């Protein structure tokens, strides 16, 4: 991957008819790595300042027939060289146009070392190119914000369910996870954690790595192939951390009483974007949470706009009606890379997300559906 230190004024002038190799190297030097919203800015200031000029330069490359090129010493025809240059320019442009314009990408999300895992762990997540309404093919900022505070939430709200940080080998000996993932074959261990609307699986995979308990990732059937892929990508990591994950379809609109599984912890991040969602999510939680006073729900919702805030209020009211009470809540900064660049480098929009930990109200768990 090229460096991003190239200033647009240092790029070769096309009217000077530079060679194929010179243009190719310049285009590679303009590569922007995928953002993971870490503390290091994904777009260094020099690039941010240059984006409109850089985009103009890239567009000029796309329009250029490169009629001064001649056959490459390695046997590439002029047409092949032109195609390579046009492809590179088009990739560099889409990197500057927001997530929705980009093709498939893989990002590495690094959970820092904690008492739950002694060294930092790198979770690799594939995001296919976005098609139609499949919002679950992208990783959303709330999932990453929650993944990072899981160790704190475990200490404050979940230590009775997940009391200790086992050594990486403990799960393998006693069967409490540690057997990797579904890709190893055999029956998956019963889940202790259920994630609803997992999307690409970042939060659920972080949960099994932090809490050392088996997780079941769920979403709509169209999202499942990518979830299976992401579990397989992380199988060696899970196996070495007493973690295990598998994935199944679970449509909130098809949830019914008596549906398996019931678990002591449900995690849900960014599930509300249609008027039906508060009702469907509230019901799915009440059906799948184990009817026990120790059970917990971690719900996180980004406060994007008035509409999302209204959906969250609706869901909070419904959770109370289902018999839940709020045990603790907070807000975190999260970022999304959905928007297109507005001329200031890539636009990783910063917003707040609300999270709450819920439990059954006193005695109400006995009457759960
Ligand atoms: C905005 S995305 C969030 C994905 C993931 N939780 C994250 O934060 O990155 C919303 C997710 O809810 C899923 N979803 C929407 N309607 C659903 C339904 N009826 N049943 C199950 N999942 C649904 C979508 O497929 C998508 O994965």
Characterization of the model:
The protein is an alpha/beta fold. The protein has two domains: 8-96; 105-367, 3-Layer(aba) Sandwich (Rossmann fold). Helix content is 33%, strand content 18%. It contains ten helices and ten strands. It has helices at residues 20-29, 45-63, 78-95, 141-158, 170-174, 202-211, 224-233, 235-239, 277-288, 306-321, and strands spanning 105-111, 121-127, 180-181, 193-196, 215-219, 244-249, 265-269, 296-302, 324-336, 349-360. The strands form two sheets. Strands 3-6-5-4-7-8-10-9 form an eight-stranded mixed sheet, sandwiched between helices. The chain has a two-stranded antiparallel ribbon with strand order 1-2. Helix 9 (277-288) links the parallel strand 7 and strand 8 (296-302). Helix 4 packs parallel to helix 6 and helix 9 (277-288) packs parallel to helix 10. It is elongated, with a radius of gyration of 24 Å. The termini are far apart. The structure holds S-adenosylmethionine. S-adenosylmethionine is lined by residues 135-136, 139-140, 142-143, 197-200, 219-220, 223, 250-253, 269-271, 280. S-adenosylmethionine binds next to helix 4.
Question: What's this model, at a glance?
Answer:
33% of the residues lie in helices and 18% in strands.
């Amino acid at each position: 991957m090229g460096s991003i230190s190239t200033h647009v004024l240092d790029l070769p002038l096309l009217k000077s008819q530079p060679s194929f190799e010179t243009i190719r190297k310049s285009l590679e030097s303009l590569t922007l790595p995928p953002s993971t919203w870490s503390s290091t800015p994904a777009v260094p200031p020099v690039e941010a300042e240059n984006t409109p000029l850089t985009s103009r330069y890239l567009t000029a490359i796309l329009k250029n027939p490169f009629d001064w090129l001649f056959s490459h010493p390695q046997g590439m025809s002029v047409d092949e060289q032109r195609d390579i240059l046009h492809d590179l320019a088009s990739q560099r442009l889409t990197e500057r146009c927001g997530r929705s314009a980009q093709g498939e990408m893989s990002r590495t999300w690094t959970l820092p070392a904690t008492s739950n895992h002694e060294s930092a762990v790198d979770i690799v997540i594939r995001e296919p190119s976005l098609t139609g309404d499949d919002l679950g093919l992208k990783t959303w900022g709330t999932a990453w914000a929650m993944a990072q505070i899981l160790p704190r939430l475990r200490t404050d709200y979940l230590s009775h369910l997940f009391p200790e940080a086992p050594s990486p080998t403990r799960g393998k000996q006693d069967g409490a996870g540690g057997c990797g993932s579904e890709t190893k074959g055999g029956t998956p261990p019963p889940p202790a954690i259920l994630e609803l609307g997992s999307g690409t699986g970042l939060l659920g995979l972080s949960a099994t790595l932090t809490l050392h308990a088996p997780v079941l990732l769920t979403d709509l059937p169209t999202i499942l192939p990518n979830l299976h892929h992401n579990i397989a990508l992380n199988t060696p990591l899970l196996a070495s951390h007493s973690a295990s994950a598998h994935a199944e379809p679970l449509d909130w609109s098809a949830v019914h009483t008596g549906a398996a599984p019931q678990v002591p912890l449900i995690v849900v991040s960014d599930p509300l974007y249609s008027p039906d969602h508060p009702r469907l999510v509230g019901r799915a939680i009440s059906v799948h949470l184990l009817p026990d006073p120790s059970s917990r729900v971690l719900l996180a919702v980004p406060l994007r706009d008035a509409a999302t805030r209204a959906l969250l209020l609706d869901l909070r009211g419904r959770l109370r009606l289902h018999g839940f009470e709020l045990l603790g809540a907070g807000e975190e900064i999260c970022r999304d890379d959905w928007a297109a660049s507005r001329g200031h480098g890539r636009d990783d929009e910063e917003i707040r997300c609300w999270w709450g930990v819920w439990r059954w109200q006193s005695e109400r768990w006995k009457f759960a559906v």
